[in-house]
Structures are given as C-alpha cells and as structure tokens.
Specification:
Layout (H helix, E strand, L loop, with lengths): L12 H14 L5 E2 L11 H12 L12 H15 L8 E4 L3 H11 L5 E6 L3 H9 L3 E6 L10 H7 L4 E7 L11 H11 L5 E5 L24 E6 L12 E4 L2 H14 L5 H12 L3 H22 L14 E2 L10 H12 L1 E2 L1 E2 L11 E4 L4 H23 L1
Parallel strand pairs: 1-10, 3-4, 3-5, 5-6, 6-7
Antiparallel strand pairs: 2-8, 7-8, 9-12, 11-12
The structure holds pyridoxal-5'-phosphate (PLP).
Length: about 400
C-alpha cells in the first residue's frame, strides 16, 4: 500500500524520547531533559526584532528558491571570511533548517547502488537519508580511544569506485569530537582527485572550546567538491525558526534550488532577513552562550566521571557528551530507558546514533547547571543501587 522506500527511512530518536518524556511529565513526573540537542537560551533580541521589522516591511511573499539575493550575498561574504575561502552568492542556497541541505544534496548526488560513507556513531539522519535513496550506507567507526575522530587510513580503505559521498561532521554530534586540522588535510589529499563529494556538516562550527574550526573546503581543490551544511539553529538558539544554508558549487546549487522549488518553493522571507541580521550584528550573544556551554561541559564531565563504571571524555565542541557506560554492567539501551522511566532523566542511548554507539549514552548539556547536576545525581543513584542489587 505504501512505497517500499518508506521502510528504509529512519528517524531521530531524540524526538521520540522527548515525546515520551513529555507524556511522563503530563502524568506528574519531574523530568530532567538532557535528550534534545537544542540551546535552552532564547533567540537574541536583535534577531527577533529584525524578524518583526521584516514582517512590518512586507517580507511576507514568495522569494527566489535559492534565497533572497541580499541574504545569499551576506552568507557568501560571511562564509568566505569565516572559512578562509572565496565563495559567491551563486554558491549559496538558503533552506528551512540545516537538514534540508543534506536531503537535497544527497537527492541530487546519489544514485541507487552508489556508496556513501558516514560517521558512526553519528547524526542518525545521514544513514537514514542514504538508505532511503537506495544507496549503500558505509559506516566509518569513531573510536573513543581515538578521541572520537575517524581513522583516515580506514576511511581510505572504504573508498571504492562506487563511493560518491563522504559525510564529515565537526564538531560532532553525538561525541563532541573535533576533527584535527592535520586529519582534514589528509582527507582532502586523499579525496580531491576522486569523483566524489564531501558533505561537511558544520552546524556546530561556532560551538568550539579550543582552537578554531577548519572547513575541509579550505584545502586546495576542495571548494568545488565540498558541500558546507550550516545553519542558525545551534549558533543563535533558533531551532524553531527553521533556517539554514548550504554552500556548494554552482551546478549543484542550481540542482538543490530546483529541488527546493519542487518541495517548499522557497525559505520564509522574513526569517531570512532576520538571519541576515544575525550574521552581520556583533556576535556577543552567541559568544556568551558558548562560554556558558563550556562551563556546563566541565560540570557534566566531572559529574559523570564520578559515577562508578562510567568514563567520559572532555569534548572540544558542540554541546554533547558521550560517556562510556559499559563499566556499569547495564546495557546502554536499557540504561537510557530505565533512567527515564524510573528516575525521570531523559537521555539517549548511543545506539540512537548507529550500531557503534552501543555501550554509550548521549547527554545534551544545553540545560542549566542545576538541572545537569540533578540529572547526573539521579543517574548516580540508579547505577549505584543497580550495583548493590547485582552484588547481592
Ligand atoms: N546536523 C547535525 C550534526 C545536527 O546535530 C543537527 C541537529 O541536531 C542538524 C544537522 C540539523 O539542524 P537543523 O535543526 O537546523 O535542521
């Protein structure tokens, strides 16, 4: 009755856990939310005011599918300066959120039977979209022992004549890992002569605690074959606005814009105008958010490491930690479920990010220090009481 491809389409467990947590809350349970990946801050006032002003100015109509010309120009200027590359407005497509760049670019690139390499554990939508399009999803394992970076030799071995796409994500969801400059350089050297694209998911590029973000697009020959996926959700606490953009070669940008014509027609006009203001105004608000995330990171890492059987690396970016819970003797899926049902702590099992996430949990620390401490303390109680029971 329904198309077979629907069986191949995955989902994002974070939304399912959020729904379940809300259900428990409605029944009177007190829940600490450490599951969903969105800043708990409000969108900065200058951006909200820009949207109101744009509404009043009449930005309430259709606009060109690839985006308002002045918005594309602003994004091109921002990306050129920020990533140290030279891009034109024609390279930019404005889309509703960061996700559509992945969906549209993959639709434009992948044929059935092609291969796409993606990080695992990784953002679950990569594997979902690759499989949905009938391509082969080839995972590259990110190992804790390697600071959750990928092994470039292993990546090289996975590239075949059918590989058309490699997805990179730095800073990374769910591990908070940041790909070192030298690794990106080597990946660029290995791939630039090959007939494939790199989709570089850089939505967390501004949430970085040590050093500066590097885009693979900045290495020689890579601009033409890299798709930079970026957006406003995380940097400016704008998850509900749905605003993002892709930067890619002009031919691919035209394909992606045509997909947008067929799908959403265009991205909301007044929201694009607000997004323009977000990029051009002083960046004090996002900087403050990052400083606060860093403080919370330190609190959650210390708290988790104080639980017997749990080890947690200190991530260099994004707002997630990915502790190894295998030492507790509790399966990670079971632990995530029990923490929500019995302790009211909403977290995700590592397996929500692929098979190599087994044995880990993902915490989003985009929540107050108070709530983080409460969540960690409830988890400690649960793990310790489980240990006592199993010793008996
Ligand atoms: N890419 C990664 C790695 C993410 O973690 C997310 C959201 O969690 C997205 C893309 C999607 O962002 P948006 O909500 O702007 O579509």
């Amino acid at each position: 009755m329904y198309a077979k491809r629907m069986k191949r389409l995955g989902t994002e467990t974070a939304f399912e856990v959020l729904a379940r947590a809300k259900l428990l809350e409605a029944k009177g349970m007190n829940v600490v939310h450490l599951e969903i990946g969105e800043p708990d801050f409000d969108t900065p006032a200058n951006i909200k005011n820009a949207a109101i002003e744009a509404l009043q100015q009449g930005y309430t109509h259709y606009n060109p599918s690839p985006g308002l010309p002045e918005v594309r120009a602003t994004i091109a200027e921002y990306i050129s300066k920020d990533r140290g590359i030279q891009v034109k407005p024609e390279n930019v497509v404005v889309v509703p959120g960061a996700k559509p760049t992945l969906f549209f670019a993959a639709l434009a690139i992948l044929e059935e039977g092609d291969e796409a390499i993606y990080p695992n554990p990784g953002f679950p939508i990569y594997e979902s979209v690759i499989k949905f399009l009938g391509a082969k999803a080839v995972p590259i394992k990110l190992r804790e022992g390697n600071d959750f970076n990928l092994d470039v030799d292993e990546l090289e071995k996975k590239i075949t004549s059918r590989t058309r796409l490699i997805i990179l994500n730095s800073p990374q969801n769910p591990t908070g890992g940041v790909l070192p400059y030298e690794q990106l350089k080597r990946i660029a050297e290995i791939t630039y002569k090959k007939n494939l694209f790199i989709l570089s998911d850089e939505v967390y590029s501004k949430i970085i605690y040590e050093g500066k973000h590097t885009s693979i697009a900045a290495f020689p020959g890579m601009l033409e074959k890299t798709i930079i996926l970026d957006g406003y959700s995380k940097t400016y606490a704008m998850t509900g606005w749905r605003l993002g953009f892709g930067v890619m070669n002009e031919t691919l940008a035209k394909h992606v814009a045509r997909l947008q014509t067929n799908c959403t027609s265009c991205t909301n006009s007044f929201i694009q105008r607000a997004g323009m203001k977000a990029l051009t105004d002083p960046q004090d608000e996002p900087r403050k958010m990052v400083a606060e995330f860093k403080r919370r990171r330190d609190v959650i890492v210390e708290g988790l490491n104080s639980i017997k059987g749990v080890t947690c690396l200190k991530p260099k970016g994004a707002f997630y930690v990915f502790p190894n819970v295998s030492g507790t003797g509790i399966d990670s899926d079971e632990l995530a479920k029990k923490l929500l049902d019995e302790k009211g702590v909403a977290v995700l099992s590592g397996t929500a990010f692929g098979k190599y996430g087994k044995g880990y949990l993902r915490f989003s620390y985009a929540n107050s220090v108070e709530n983080i401490k409460e969540g960690v303390s409830r988890m400690k109680e649960y793990v310790e009481s489980h240990e006592k029971k199993s010793r008996r």
